[in-house]
Amino acid sequence: MRFSMNFCLMVTVALLSGCLYTFHPAYDPADVVSDPQVAGSWLEVKEGDLQWTFEVVDEKTYRVTAREKDEESRPFTGQLFKLGKDTFLDMFPQEREGENFFQDQVVAFHTVYRLCRNGDDLKLQALDPDWGNKMLEEKKIDVEFLQVDDHIKIISSSQTKNRELLLTYADEAFTGKVDIDFKRVKKE
């Protein structure tokens, strides 16, 4: 029960913060890129409580974990992909042993951030929630979505439509309003 409550809380908090959530990826396999310099641990600059770790699984896949202080973390499969001039991070929850009952009760979805890396600085930009809500309410973007409540929307469009959305609106959608800045954790 602890897992399902924590996971639901994590989903609610993340969705309210403006992350882009989709049932289908927003990239084609040819869009996937590698950046070996992303591998390692990154500490959030503002509070210093959040640490993300990228472990290389293969040439273009990472195991991504996010941990806040001593809290339990959930592993994600991460892939970097490039659309136009922008690099994005797609994360999808990994299965964990012993969670068969809960896995059947939770729907997994992709989380997308725009990723900017400059040396030992890493920035993850989430979708501007005001932009997303306005565009959906005014029907200015052609995507299907699941309305969970007043704040939570999960895009249910096809992979092709999700990709087109990012190609067309990345500069408008990822405004920097919801950024997480990280510094590389140096090995001692």
Give an overview of the whole structure.
- The protein is of the alpha+beta class and 188 residues long.
- 24% of the residues lie in helices and 37% in strands.
- The strands form two sheets. It has an eight-stranded antiparallel barrel with strand order 3-4-5-6-7-8-9-12. Strands 10-11 form a two-stranded antiparallel sheet.
- A hairpin with a 5-residue loop joins strand 3 and strand 4.
- The protein is globular.
- 23% of the residues are buried.
- The N terminus is likely disordered.
General form: globular
- Give the count of helical stretches: 4
Major beta sheet summary: 8 strands, antiparallel, barrel
Arithmetic mean pLDDT: 80
Radius of gyration: 16 Å
What is the succession of H and E elements? HEEEEEEEHEEHEEHE
Number of strands: 12
Strand fraction equals: 35-45%
**Termini, distance in Å?**
38 Å
- The level of helicity is 10-25%
**Spatial strand arrangement across the major sheet:** 3-4-5-6-7-8-9-12
Model regions low in confidence, pLDDT < 50 over at least 5 residues: 1-17
Classification by helices and strands: alpha+beta
Characteristic terms for this protein:
single chain; two-stranded antiparallel sheet; 12 strands; eight-stranded antiparallel beta barrel; 188 residues; alpha+beta
Strands, helices and their partners?
Blueprint: H1 2-16, E1 20-22, E2 32-33, E3 40-44, E4 50-58, E5 61-68, E6 75-83, E7 86-93, H2 100-105, E8 110-118, E9 121-125, H3 129-137, E10 145-147, E11 153-155, H4 159-173, E12 179-184
Antiparallel strand pairs: 1-8, 2-6, 3-4, 3-12, 4-5, 5-6, 6-7, 7-8, 8-9, 9-12, 10-11
